[in-house]
């Protein structure tokens, strides 16, 4: 049987890999899976093809006897929150998140707002390939798509209910928001204004072609945004990906702060706000070991998992964890919802700044400083991934403080850590390493490269 779902939904280049025909069949399979009479919310991000695919998804769902509601354009976490709180049985989101502009995708969420579990993806694939669709009688097709217009207000109010609005308002913060010309622009500025901020936006108009920067926030793609933040001397900058479930922060010195650093601060803050929660955070092996180094001071345990936000979200829910996150800026705050949420992360960061009465730069300076170096090695014929991992383990495990092998090989040393891991999408081995000074990090990566190549 073929495979449709990748690490987070079905993705492909619009009208080439992700075709109208495929999406129609997929929508019929999704609707058949949820069953007759299920109430399904459909929404989308700004991408080209979004309008076309939304209409196809809605038609496909109607054709298999599902009750369809259109939530319009909104941030993915806003749609997920609507599914969870407005009484839906599930949702379909037309989005390709952070992928380059030509891509689009289909994400399926369950009743609780979390992306459906792997077993359920398999069931949908099964229906898709066997074409066992729950085709409706003609008379059921008297039903029409209904409008759901509460998605954004419901989401903004949900976020505001978790922070001390008055405490933040008193600070009169000045903030810069970069929604990458996509759906984050529909909600994050509303959250900021409700919190009394003076709001500046960059790339704040909706544009399906992403004219200003790629939909993925990276050090490179945020250079201009960071410059603007510095020039405007804002208290905090925040940049989203294409569907606004990620938040990458720019501090008051204009420095882009990577997601595992901000998530470490937010995890600490979550433990202060929720003293009764399980003192554990869940993150992927690709996060920095500074997470553990910093949070252990507050007796917060770190559980390392495989890379992939969907598995992290389910683990956070199953284990009643304090928080979950990925290093790319996706942070999950369970009292609000179990999925990554860019605007929620932003509101929490403002609340932490207000509570501690410090600037965002001072907050980030509390974290240990590491230098990150990344590289990759192309997998040539004859190179066996398991043998590479074995060589890395043999070379480094005796000097390690901790070795984690659930997804590649992660080695944590006294003042360094590294991860050697096969990419999930390309025939390459990714190497990332951090150390307390730049030359140690560079030397470590060069040495690792030789070990991976077997030289
Ligand atoms: Mg995303």
Textual characterization of the structure:
It is globular, with a radius of gyration of 22 Å. The protein has four domains: 10-148, 3-Layer(aba) Sandwich (Alpha-D-Glucose-1,6-Bisphosphate, Chain A, domain 3), CATH 3.40.120.10; 155-255, Alpha-D-Glucose-1,6-Bisphosphate, Chain A, domain 3, CATH 3.40.120.10; 259-342 and 357-364, Alpha-D-Glucose-1,6-Bisphosphate, Chain A, domain 3 (3-Layer(aba) Sandwich); 371-453, Alpha-D-phosphohexomutase, C-terminal domain (TATA-Binding Protein, 2-Layer Sandwich). By secondary structure, it is α/β, with parallel strands linked by helices. Strand 7 (174-178), helix 7 (188-194) and strand 8 (198-201) form a beta-alpha-beta unit. The chain has helices spanning 20-34, 50-63, 76-85, 118-130, 151-160, 165-169, 188-194, 223-232, 259-273, 290-295, 309-318, 342-356, 360-364, 385-396, 438-453; strands at 10-13, 39-44, 67-73, 90-94, 103-110, 146-147, 174-178, 198-201, 236-240, 247-250, 256-257, 278-284, 301-305, 321-325, 331-332, 371-378, 402-404, 409-412, 416-422, 428-435. It contains 15 helices and 20 strands. It has a six-stranded mixed sheet, sandwiched between helices. The protein binds magnesium ion (MG). Magnesium ion is lined by residues 97-98, 241, 243, 245-246.
């Amino acid at each position: 049987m073929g495979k449709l779902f990748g690490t987070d939904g079905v993705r492909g280049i619009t009208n080439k890999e992700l075709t109208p025909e495929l999406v129609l069949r997929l929508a019929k399979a999704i609707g058949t899976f949820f069953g007759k009479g299920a109430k399904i919310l459909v929404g989308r991000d700004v991408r080209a093809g979004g309008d076309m695919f939304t209409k196809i998804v809605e038609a496909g769902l109607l054709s298999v006897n599902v009750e369809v509601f259109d939530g319009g354009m909104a941030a993915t976490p806003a749609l997920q929150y609507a599914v969870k709180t407005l009484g839906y049985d599930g949702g379909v989101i037309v989005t390709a998140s952070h992928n380059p502009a030509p891509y689009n995708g289909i994400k399926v969420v369950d009743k609780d707002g979390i992306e459906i579990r792997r077993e359920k993806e398999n069931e949908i694939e099964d229906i898709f390939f066997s074409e066992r669709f729950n085709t409706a009688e003609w008379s059921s097709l008297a039903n029409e798509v209904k409008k759901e217009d509460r998605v954004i207000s419901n989401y903004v109010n949900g976020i505001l209910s978790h922070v001390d609005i008055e405490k933040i308002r008193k600070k009169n913060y000045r903030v810069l928001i970069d929604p990458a010309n996509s759906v984050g622009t529909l909600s994050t500025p509303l959250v900021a204004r409700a919190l009394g901020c003076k709001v500046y936006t960059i790339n704040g108009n909706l544009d399906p072609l992403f004219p200003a920067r790629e939909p993925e926030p990276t050090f490179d793609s945020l250079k201009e945004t960071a410059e603007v933040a510095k020039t405007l001397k804002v208290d905090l900058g925040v940049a989203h990906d294409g569907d606004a479930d990620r938040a990458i922060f720019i501090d008051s010195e204009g420095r882009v702060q990577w997601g595992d650093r901000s998530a470490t601060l937010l995890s600490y803050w979550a433990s202060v706000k929720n003293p009764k929660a399980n003192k554990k955070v869940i993150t992927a092996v690709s996060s920095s070991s500074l997470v553990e180094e910093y949070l252990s001071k507050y007796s917060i345990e770190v559980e390392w998992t495989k890379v992939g936000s969907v598995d992290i979200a389910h683990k956070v829910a199953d284990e009643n964890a304090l928080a979950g996150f990925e290093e790319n800026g996706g942070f999950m705050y369970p009292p609000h919802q179990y999925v990554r949420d860019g605007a929620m992360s932003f509101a929490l960061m403002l609340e932490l700044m207000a509570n501690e009465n410090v600037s965002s730069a001072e907050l980030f300076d509390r974290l240990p400083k590491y230098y990150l170096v990344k590289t990759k090695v192309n997998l040539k014929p004859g190179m066996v991934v398991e043998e590479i991992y074995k060589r890395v383990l043999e070379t480094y495990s005796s000097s390690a403080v901790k070795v984690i092998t659930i997804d590649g090989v992660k080695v944590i040393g006294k003042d360094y850590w590294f991860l050697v891991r096969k990419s999930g999408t390309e025939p390459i081995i990714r190497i990332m390493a951090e150390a307390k000074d730049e030359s140690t990090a560079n030397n470590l990566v060069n040495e690792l490269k030789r070990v991976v190549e077997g030289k």
